[in-house]
Amino acid sequence: MSIILGGAFAAGAFNNSMQSEAAGTPNTTLSQWLRLAPDHLGRPYLMLAARISQWDYYNPGGQSKYRSELAGLYTKLSWGQTYCYHWRMTVPKDWYSLGASSVYIIGQMHDVNGGAVGRRPTFAIEIADSTMNLVFSRDSVTAGQSVYSTPVVAGQEYEFTIRVRWADGTNEADANGLVEIYNGDTLVASFAGRNTWAGTPVTEPNPPYIKCGVYQAGPAFTWWDGKSATMYYTAALSATGEETPATLRSQIDAQLVANPSSLVTSL
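^ that's the sequence the OP posted. Answer follows.
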């Protein structure tokens, strides 16, 4: 059992086979949009703070202007294996809904998509108004299928673990597909069969990879006018399939204890 990439951000997860995708920045650096920051709830460790605003689409702009995300290197993953993907994140204590029509992404498992086809990510953790939805997409469900939902609560920590053996029908047979979704230690959803977009060894040489951070699809939404979104991440990682939510939590907690920061009571 082992963590393959990522981990607790206080322990340098950014340097463990992850790269940044943020407005106007190269993929090897953090920035004001994607940075390490004291925990805003006062816990004694650093977190990854991800922020994006409508203004960032225009200044500085650039290819990554819609996102402030970290991505795991997909070359660390192979077809035919079972993996665990894990996020521990906290909603800002001053969070509020951006409106009834608002939708933005705070976590993903993204297909390689070597053909650059315009489509949804294989998996997304989305905040829609005041609900957090876990959404899978594939050829049979191109608009996305919400498989689990929970209310968004300001200042609350969320921990999701997804155990998955990817199946796209070519690189891995549909019959071998497996998805198990955990909220904390509780199994909240599971399904078998094809679980990602159809591909070939050329377009999908590796299975989907983890992402954490904030993504909003573009400026052409009136609900996004003058708005911004922030999320805080204690950890994000990919690990071998033998791990469980409890074993991953234990490893992350150990990394946090070994990498403390000064206690912060307010910002």
